[in-house]
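Input record (one chain):
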Amino acid sequence: MTHSEIDRLRDTLSRIAKVDLDNGTAPDVETAVARLREHRIGVFAGPEIASSGAHQAALLTVVNIGRRFALGGVFVDGDLDVPLLVLGGPARSLADEVVAQGGRRGRADDPVPGVVIGNAAVMPDRGVAATFEGWRGGIVPLADARLTDVTTVTPAAVLAGALAAAEVFAMLRGEVEAGHRSGGLSLWRPDRSHDWTVAAGDGPALAALPNHLWILGLGHLGQAFLWTLMLCPYPDRAAVRLVLQDTDEVTGSTESTSILTQVGMLGMRKTRAVADVLERHGFHTTLMERPFDGSFRRRAEDDPAVLVCGVDNALARSQLEEPGFPMIVEAGIGASAQDFRALRLHTFPSTKPASELWSEGAHARGAADLSRPGYRRLSDAGSDICGLTRLAQTAVGAPFVGTVAGCLMLVQVLRVLAGDAPDALVDLDLRSMKSRRAVTNVTLAAFNPGFQLVA
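The corresponding structure, as predicted from the sequence alone:
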């Protein structure tokens, strides 16, 4: 393959399929992609979806994420012919939105790993139940007790949906413990000292939502954050103003990890593709299509007070504090087949400035490993070595990781609105949720992030 042919492959290859290419379990690109085409999952919804926006948010999150790795189909069983209670926009049914997000109505012909949401009349042979309460969300084995599944904090339901999608992905990959374990966290107190299954780690009912935000980066993390925001119960979506900043275009690989991306967006600038989605659901957007650098300065009279950053660029991250935003929420995720389920979140100002965290060369990506069978095969066929190296260095990713991060990013702002301090750091890996850690931000000064009250 020539350099340009490998670049085209790099721009179209599913970042989830690349996991198998990089860990050596797939001998070539075709095998890695074919495995995803064989993946199918089921979602089993109870009658609660007719009256609960939280249940609908969890359901749609599983469908939206699942269809990006279960290319054989996401099958949704339950009475979906009910009004859509989330996302705003034109009146439509939940069934319409399930199909729009890539789901299929009914059950798969053969048993597949399943996610149960609510008191479903039909249960899968194997799978997990998504569960949530207050600021807490997670998964439990099918036979285990659940939380109350009542919440005003929509990100808790989105979190449950994302973790459920992560678990059925693990089941499809044959991971031994998958489907037999519980896992979750409190978005109010995400450190490991708080048990997510008990109310001691909970916060107050949701009273306010942010209505003016600057979103830097509209890929995996930025879109996951906005998906979670879109599902929240805004009384007045027209009053929400979002500044969207990115310079990239949608490529064939974008859809595998970025959950606002749909068929038909290929070649569009991400700012315009995402703005179309947000405005269709009632939000106002302003587009910024230039790189983020040290020349930016926040204009206090009309720019948002909160910057939300999801870019994978050390230089841009090192300069996050220079424009003068009173609050910055930043997250990053693992990029290799070994750590793609890990995430780390920061808020600024903090005790350690962004310029120190991302000092020059501090987070350089490791050398490409071309010894894996898939890369060796391409190399033996005479592929351009420079292009092959770029392909090997391209990050892997899975949308359930970004969605968990997106929930954590949004709740940092929600906690400030509730009078709480955000986390200066959250560090976790979905493979070992019990080892997570969170550190409170003791530096952030009081400010008004802009909000509207929830009715």
